[in-house]
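ok trying again, last paste got cut off:
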Amino acid sequence: MDENNFLVIKKKYESKQIKDMSDAELLTEVSKAFQRIHVITGWNLPDDNEYIKILSEEFCLKLKEDFYMMNFPEIVYAFRKNGIGIKDWGKNMNLDLICNVLGDYCVERTRISFEEEKIILNPPAVKINTQDELDNIHRKWTEEFYQRIRSGKIEMVPAFTEDILIKDGLLEKGHSVSAFFVKSLNEQRENIYKKS
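nice, full thing came through this time. structure:
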């Protein structure tokens, strides 16, 4: 899933959905959203209280009718994503301009939600490694660790290293794994495990 799709899904769960909001909450959030939409798009928000009141009421109704599944962080994100560059041709901010942006966003949101649902209902198969595969991974990581300390990096010995060295007969149980690596470095040993 790409970053854009991830952001849409993240916003979808970020806040209370419109359908779960009281009328007072909705009106408060609409007022805040208008300011953000104005800042993002540059659309004219007239200094006319009656116009703003009617626009707010109509937007609240439209949200409850058609965009009830959204939340306000999503609405603002929709304008950042899709609202920049839409020309208002000198008109005041209006329901048509707003709904065009939200409608386009909802088409994308629906598509991404279907993808999300597929992932949830059909998660990718999880591969469980066999003990031999795990041992080979630990050998590989032990070799990578050894190459790093050969190049002068100072690191703690990984927890799994002692077990795999003992299992492979390279280290006797009870002996120091750190001493094993110091001895290997002093002997200028090139590898602990060679690739076969």
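cool. Residues 162 and 175 are 9 Å apart (CA to CA). The longest helix spans residues 95-121.
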